[in-house]
What does this fold into?
Amino acid sequence: MPILNELKNSYLNYAMSVIVSRALPDVRDGLKPSQRRVLVAMHDLNLGPRSTHRKCAKIVGDTSGNYHPHGDQAT
It folds into this structure.
């Protein structure tokens, strides 16, 4: 039984850390980490309200390639 208790506690700790670090918006700016990565990629591409049009695929591709190299699911 001690192994089962340890597994339960470890999984609960991991799940809570994932929820707090990835799923909940940050109190400072209201953004999730994936949203912040997209905005940083847009800033790196010099994209803003007055810049020329860019397709979403370009932004998502740059975000995935530069800031999230193990897949595009979070982007």
Notes: The helical segments are 2-23, 33-44, 56-67. The longest helix spans residues 2-23. The chain has three helices and no strands. The two ends are 40 Å apart (CA to CA).
